[in-house]
Design a protein that fits this description.
It is built from 39 helices and no strands. Helix 2 packs parallel to helix 4, helix 3 packs antiparallel against helix 4 and helix 17 crosses helix 19. The longest helix has 25 residues. It is globular.
Length: 757
């Protein structure tokens, strides 16, 4: 910084400096300050402050707005720690910075960007230096309130008030608090989504910090306004609204009153929301907290709320159409956190009721399904071993004729094991060995146990070394199962376990790529596929050096193994292309070979389809590694004449190649005409069923999209293609369908251009 500061000073202070130079210097200063520890700048604060404050007073709005942003970084740097005895004496800088920003905040005729930057900077000044500006608060806070009431500046001011409210200094806002809360409450009904979102966040921050200074009438107004925001139409908005409800119900001064209003206004909306098939993520997490806070506010009895919650899923299935699978899971999670908030004796009685419901609800699928899911959700959060033979009750549900009940029972058993590994994991492993008919469901239970190890704190599992060894021995034994469904679950278990224990698992999986059993080789390749997720993981460094051992099984003699290798390559190309890019020169010829029909009686359809889908993914993420000419002829040409399931990805690939590699496509456009013409002129037999007719229509539309992509690049390059367009595509029965596809294509292109602009 000692080397840089003189240059920054000169750029900002020299009379010969242009506005562009000043802007560059300010942007540079802001970025440097934002990305380095504050202590780096303390020796240079005096040297930087004067030229930056002078730049705030410049006439050119771009210089001014950038200088205001640098002021914000200066404020953070001079007082990084809000402690009694700071390491840097910031007090001499408080008044000069405040006065300069106040002048900009009060100025009327200035650019919108300058106004917003001044508001943001003043918010930072008050939040970090407000205890040194007690007399000045009576001036600057009403000014911010005025900006809050201005339609042009209100969104920026809402965010500034959030910064102030979150300050550990507990700034005295008494002169404007009530009016600010009133304004923010009215913003909740505005059409501007960003304004509503910001207002919810700021109200939450204000209520957390100043709830004891806000009256009950304000609480009621807020609840009434936010109740209309709770729906699955905007789950992010819903999560913030529910979080605000929770804050109000946790306020000791107002919790009972707030709870009553929430029960009347918000609970009905929440009970509708919990049934939504779209509910997930943060909104679902916040909804769970909402139900707990509602009971703890003492405005709603535990029994009434639990019954209302459970009735939403049961009621949905008995009237108004069946509840979605997600609705049952959402209700179960909310019911579980509600039970855990109750006293132990009450929670235990609810668990007993649910066990009884599982045993005695034969024929009542909705009740049994919900009870199983609730037991699973409670069990992963709380040890249920005191309930005698709980595992036996759940295992009996594995015999249900309903697939949904079986799946729920499997889920429940795995989650209950999370609450007490020493008892229930041993039980699951022994049952997998002894109950051959139930292996598939029991393996799904084991998968739940493994998956929960990497989830949130609710149900965090810590395997012992012996547990891992037992699980591995069992999984590797079942790699050779003749049932593909079992092998797939085993592979997923191995993959999830490998993410947790890469040092042990990756070498063990690699060793089995040499197994004499084709089923084992296929299973370990699929397991590796499950380890390649789209976010960085410690396992990546273990996989990269040996991934070729798995992917080179694309040349295996067994088609199941080859299909597994193609699928793993496709996943790697999609999620982490860097793992496979260096291997593509060797892999691509082997991949292309999987697209070829090799037998008269074809048993490789799935493999060919998967191979073309893999090429499609590679075109998106590894185009620089692909020679389009060597792929188009003969492989893509062959695919365009193949089965329906193969033609569909081939049409998509042809469209992408036309866009990304037009010269390679134009070089063979004549040879593309014949397979495309055969597809679009295919006529169905008179006795074809509706499903066959619909599939053929889908295939023709798919081919027409590819043809339209070719038409966009062809010009007069091919007389044969031009004749095909005029005589076949643009005339007769195809003309109307082609025009529809063309308009659809034009709309997509127009949308892309608008997005770019």
């Amino acid at each position: 910084m000692s080397s840089l500061v003189p240059g920054i000073e000169r750029a900002l202070s020299d009379k010969s400096s242009t506005s562009n130079l000043k802007i560059e210097a300010l942007v540079f200063t802001r970025l440097v300050m934002a990305s380095n520890p504050p202590v780096v700048f303390h020796p240079h604060i005096q040297a930087l402050t004067n030229p930056v404050l002078a730049a705030v007073n410049e006439r050119y709005y771009k210089v001014t707005s950038e200088a205001l942003r640098v002021c914000g970084e200066l404020v953070k740097a001079i007082r990084p720690e809000l402690v009694q005895s700071p390491s840097f004496n910031f007090i001499p800088y408080v008044q000069p910075i405040y006065s300069t920003i106040l002048k900009r905040l009060t100025a009327q005729d200035q650019d919108q960007e300058v106004k917003e930057c001044a508001i943001t900077c003043m918010g930072l000044i008050i939040s970090l230096l407000g205890d040194q500006l007690k007399r000045e608060l009576g001036v600057c806070l009403p000014l911010l309130l005025d900006r809050l009431r201005n339609e042009i500046t209100r969104l920026t001011t809402v965010k500034a008030f959030a910064t102030i409210a979150e300050s550990p200094l507990k700034i005295d806002l008494s002169c404007i608090l009530g009016q600010a809360v009133l304004e923010l409450t009215t913003f909740l009904r505005k059409a501007n989504r960003a304004l509503r979102l910001a207002s919810l966040g700021t109200l939450n921050a204000l209520l957390i910090a100043y709830g004891d200074k806000i009256g009950s009438s304000s609480y009621e107004s807020i609840i009434i306004e936010l109740s209309s925001l709770i729906s699955d139409a905007d789950l992010h908005m819903t999560a913030l609204a529910l979080e605000l409800c929770c804050t109000m119900m946790k306020d000791k001064r107002h919790h009972s009153y707030a709870g009553v209003v929430v029960k009347e206004r918000v609970l009905p909306q929440a009970l509708v929301l919990v049934k939504s098939p779209l509910l997930q993520g943060q909104a679902l997490q916040t909804l769970q907290g909402f139900f707990t806070a509602l009971v703890q506010s003492a405005s709603t009895s535990f029994d009434i709320l639990l019954d209302a919650l459970l009735s939403t899923a049961r009621g949905s299935s008995s009237g108004g159409g069946p509840a979605s699978k997600q609705a049952f899971h959402s209700v179960a999670q909310c019911a579980a956190v509600l039970c855990l908030a109750a006293p132990d004796a009450k929670c235990s009685s609810i668990v007993s009721m649910l066990i009884n419901s599982v045993e005695n609800s034969l024929g009542q699928d909705a009740t049994q399904l919900l009870s199983l899911l609730c037991l699973g959700e409670i069990g992963r959060r709380k040890d249920l071993h005191s309930h005698i033979n709980l595992e036996g009750v759940i295992i009996r549900s594995f015999q249900s004729p309903s697939e949904e009940i079986k799946s729920a029972a499997s889920y429940a058993l795995g989650n209950i094991a999370v609450g007490n590994l020493s008892k229930y994991l041993t039980f699951i492993l022994s049952q997998i060995d002894n109950q051959s008919k139930l292996q598939y469901l029991l393996l799904h239970s084991l998968k739940e146990v493994i998956a929960r190890q990497s989830t949130d704190d609710a149900g965090k599992v810590d395997f012992k070394g012996t547990d891992v060894q037992k699980i591995l021995a069992l999984l590797f034994t079942h790699c050779q199962s003749e049932e593909e469904g079992i092998r797939n679950v085993v592979a997923e278990c191995l993959g999830k376990l490998a993410i947790l224990e890469p040092g042990k698992l990756v070498p063990a999986l690699k060793e089995r790529t040499l197994s004499s059993s084709a089923f084992t080789r296929a299973t370990v390749v699929i397991a590796i596929k499950y380890t390649i997720v789209d976010r960085p993981q410690p396992i990546d460094m273990h996989i990269k050096p040996c991934i070729d051992s798995f992917l080179m099984l694309i040349r295996d003699e067994d088609r199941h193994v080859r299909r597994a290798a193609v699928s793993a390559l496709s996943t790697a190309a999609h999620n982490k292309a860097v793992l496979v890019k260096d291997l593509l020169p060797a892999l691509l010829p082997l991949l292309y070979d999987q697209t070829v029909i090799k037998h008269t009686v074809d048993d490789g359809l799935e493999l060919r389809k998967g191979a073309f889908e893999c090429v499609d993914t590679l075109l998106d993420n590894c185009l620089d590694q692909i020679d389009p000419s060597s792929f188009i002829d003969p492989y893509l040409l062959s695919g365009l004449s193949d089965h329906y399931d193969v033609k569909m990805p081939c049409h998509l690939i042809l469209s992408k190649l036309a866009e990304k590699c037009p010269s390679a496509v134009l070089a063979v456009v004549d040879t593309l005409v014949e397979p495309l013409e055969r597809t679009v002129t295919t006529k169905m037999k008179p006795d074809a069923v509706k499903q066959e007719v619909d599939r053929n229509e889908d295939m023709i539309r798919s081919a027409l999209r590819a043809i339209e992509s070719l038409n966009r690049i062809s010009g007069d390059a091919s007389s044969r293609f031009k004749a095909f367009m005029n005589n076949v595509v643009k005339s007769g029965p195809l003309a109307e369908r082609y025009n529809a596809v063309r308009h659809e294509s034009d709309a997509v292109v127009t949308g892309d251009i608008m997005d770019m602009s």
